[in-house]
Amino acid sequence: MASSPVSNAAVTVNPTTTVKATVPVERKKIAQPGLKIVTKNVGIKSILDPPKNAQMENENALLPDLAENFTHSELMAVWKNYAMNLQREKKTSLATTLMSSEPIVSSDFQITLEIANSSQASDLEIEKSTLLGHLRSKLRNYQIGFNYKVSEKKQALSTSDTKATFEKLAEDNPSLHKFRKLFNLDIDF
């Protein structure tokens, strides 16, 4: 009588024949990759719906209670140092954004920067955590927060009244009158 094959051993059925029993081989299963591919490209989706940074919220919960006071001149020194580092890293547009207006600090260490457009806002959103880390460590204050707001100061110049528009621009830049006279330009269309 033949016994059931349990392992990969030789089984003798009768003295003249030897039969080798085989055990079925299990194939390895390949797992599907579960990681998301991350790129540094800015897309429409990231601009219109910026991701809520859960990691940033977790870091805020773990921050030390260090909260030393600092002066505005100390803040500006650290701010300019950071902007210069960005300039060295060839991130000139971001460095220009940081230096274009002076940051305003509230009493609860919240820093607000006024920026010109939404393109600068998307650049700042990407750099925000690194900037905050730099400010917090250099100023030894982990209660510092950073916000930005898009300025509404841009005035739309009226195209229907070109003479008034020219006069408005010439107030800011008097050399426009010299330019107009030099090239004999007529400002009325």
CATH class assignment of the domain at 50-150: Alpha Beta
Give the ordered list of helices and strands.
Answer: EEHHHHEEHEHH
Q: Do you know the CATH architecture of the domain at 50-150?
A: 2-Layer Sandwich
**What is the CATH topology descriptor of the domain at 50-150?**
GMP Synthetase, Chain A, domain 3
**Number of strand segments:** 5
Largest sheet: 3 strands, mixed
Structural class: alpha+beta
> How large is the count of helical segments?
7
Chain-averaged pLDDT: 76
Strand order of the largest sheet: 3-4-5
Q: Could you tell me the strand content as a percent range? A: 5-15%
What level of helicity do the residues show? Answer: 40-55%
Uncertain residue ranges = 1-7, 154-159
The N- and C-terminal alpha carbons lie at a distance of 112 Å
**Cα gyration radius (Å):** 34 Å
Global morphology = flat
Overview of the molecule:
The structure is a single chain. This protein has 189 residues and is an alpha+beta fold. The protein has a domain at 50-150: GMP Synthetase, Chain A, domain 3. 43% of the residues lie in helices and 12% in strands. It contains seven helices and five strands, in the order E-E-H-H-H-H-E-E-H-E-H-H. The chain has helices at residues 44-48, 54-62, 72-88, 92-100, 118-139, 162-172, 175-182, and strands at 10-14, 17-20, 104-105, 110-115, 145-150. The strands form two sheets. A three-stranded mixed sheet has the order 3-4-5, covered by helices on one side. A two-stranded antiparallel ribbon has the order 1-2. A hairpin with a 4-residue loop joins strand 3 and strand 4. Helix 3 packs antiparallel against helix 4 and helix 3 (72-88) packs across helix 5 (118-139). The radius of gyration is 34 Å and the shape is flat. The N and C termini lie far apart (112 Å). 6% of the residues are buried. Residues 1-7 and 154-159 have low confidence and may be disordered.
